[in-house]
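Q: I have 283 residues here and want to know how they pack in 3D. Can you give me a structure?
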Amino acid sequence: MFEQRFTRRAASVVEAAALRCARDGHAEVTAVHLLAALLEEQEGLTAAVLDRSGARQRLASAVARNLGQRPRVEGGGSPRPDRSFAASLAEAEAQRTASGSDYVSTEHLLVALAVAGGQAKDLLEDCELDLESLKGAMDQAGAQAVTSEDPEGSFEALERFGLDLTAEARAGRLDPVIGRDGEIRRAMRIISRRTKNNPVLVGPPGVGKTALAEGIARRIAAGDCPESLAEKRLIALDMGGLLAGAKYRGEFEERLKAVLKEVEASDGSVILFIDELHTIVGA
């Protein structure tokens, strides 16, 4: 019913709202059921906004109380959408159009509840999550037009699929690299170039290619590096994480593009280390 214009997660949330309503024995699927389903989200922009607001638990408790006070019906057939539910979906479609998105995503559903959600809108406002604060939080978290069916899977991709080696070095979690000073200096010299600055480390397994990257991270963390590399972040890309769970066509490519887009948006402050580079070929 929702696959044509909803992201996978948004369609799943709408279905979860209907299932929650049927499980609780309610006659109508309402905007509050939709809000309850959104509160179960753990990934993506919506989850980030709810977590950073600090109101997720308080809002979840208020939603549970609201739904717990509703009468139960037995043998009444499948629950039907009420006016607030239908109005929220219509508003989500309007939010999709206004944002220039190709799909209705979970953040559109959340904003729609703050506009046309009836009791769900009241619950959000009681937790200081009105329309203005939600949109402000989403803009701050990096809201963009939704152009794929799985935007939640690529949200903050660099943080999800990368390990900041410079942060690990500052925390003392990287071992010293012995006997590779020449190779480290040469790699750093190549990285410091304006062009042709992508060194490829080639060698049999176990010779210390990954250790070389860790050695560069330790040098940057200690300030023992060219000025052009100072304050840079060396991030190791987790290829296993990128590939894991990519069950839909093009999902791995979407994740990789999201990582590269974040690296590009960093304006040169991120150096990306791709271990096992050959695994990308044909992935």
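Q: Anything worth noting?
A: The first strand starts at residue 28 and ends at 29. The chain has a mean pLDDT of 88.
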